[in-house]
Amino acid sequence: MAADRRARIVARIVAAGGTPSAPGPLCKVAADIIGLTGAGVMVLRDGVPQASLCSTGPVSALIEELQYTLGEGPCIDAYRTGTVILEPDLAAPASLRWPAFTPEAVDAGARAVFGFPVRIGAVRIGALNVFRDRSGPLSDNQHADALVMADVIARTILEFQAHAEPGAIAAELNADIHTVVHQAAGMVSIQLGITVGDALARLRAHAFGVDTSITEVSRAVVSRTLNFSSPEER
Predict the structure, then answer these.
(1) Helix axes 74-81, 58-70, angle to 10 degrees
(2) Under CATH, which number does the domain 179-233 receive?
C-alpha cells in the first residue's frame, strides 16, 4: 500500500510540472493529495527552524512564519517529538498547547492543523504542516497519505543536502531561508555576549512584544536601526 501511495504522489508531482526532487510543487501536491486547504514544509536543525521549503499560499506562509517567530506550533512539536501532531479543532482545542500560535492561526483562517515529522529513520529533518479551513480529524487514508508524503519530502531534502557545503543549507532552500534572522542572531549574540540560541530567543521575545514578525525585527538589527545593547533595549 505504501508503495502504491508513493507512486501516486510521485506521479502527481510530475504532473504538477516538477520532479520528485524539485521543491516547487511539493507543498501543492501535499495539500491536494491529502485533501486539505494548504501545506507548508519547515526545515529545522536542533529544534530551531532553518528554512521554509515551500508553502501553498498566504495562510500557509503565515503559519510557517508564526512558528518561526513564536517557537511553537505543529511543525515545532512534530520535529521535537518525532511523532504526528494532530489538532482537529484549533478554534476550540481540548487543551491550549500553543497559546501564542493558536489565536493568530485561527484569525488567519486555520481551523485544523496537523504536523508530520520529516525524517529518515532516527534522523529528523523538519516537519510537514497541513491545515484545513474547517475543523475535523483526518481520515485514515489522509493520515496514511500524509505519512508517505512526509517521507517523499525527507528524501527530497536529503538529496538537496547531499550537494551542499558541510554545515550549510542547500541552495534549493535558500529562496525561503530566513538568512536575515540568523545574521541578526549572530549580531545580537555579539552585542550581548550570549549564545546564538539565546540571541534567537531574545529576537523572538522582542518580536512578540512589539507584535511583529521575527523577520522584521531581524531586518532592523541587520540595518542597525535596532541594537539590543542600547540602554532602552536592555
Answers:
(1) 60
(2) 1.10.10
